[in-house]
Amino acid sequence: METETGARAERLGSFLFSELGTCNANGDCLSPAESGTSLVWLERQTMDYSKAAVLLSKSLSLAWIIAIVGCGGSTGPQGGPRVSTVAVTGVVKVDGAPAPFLRVVAVPVGGVGAVPMESAALTDANGVFGLSTYESGDGVPAGQYQLTFVWGQINLMNSQYSGDKFKGKYADPAKSAHNLTVTDSDEPHDLGVIELSSAAAKK
Looking at the structure, do residues 47 and 120 belong to the same domain, yes or no? Predict the structure, then answer.
């Protein structure tokens, strides 16, 4: 893909240069021979620009993916009035090291919460997360929750988040050892550091 993009950019640059050369303030253009500009120099500049374009495209794609998948993992309200939420933050470490792109979900005890959507988050490069329900980092409604953890990967080609390095070890809310209780009068919750292990679950 990069080779094809670079080739197209080089051909376009060479064509424009050969056809237009350089132009002065009055709009009068000189050919490459007349202007004394090096074709090799233009080709090098074109290659630099094509590489920058590819890098920018990848950066924008990653930012778009993170915005969709990682800014809270919530699709937003499906209708009806919003209920108040309380901010819940924390840090996830696996084997003592920060775990990036790890999905945290607050599952209501009993399976039924105050709102019909999921409250979730995706950790950043430092393992930091902020649970989201309606908007990024807005927290969760009052209630009792079990926290689940899935450590998957983001596919840059299709924007899908899949897999689990824990192999389901922390994905079952019924077996979760991490509880969360939130009331309407609560201040923001800081769950501190949540330590997880990559070791296989005991059978």
Answer: no
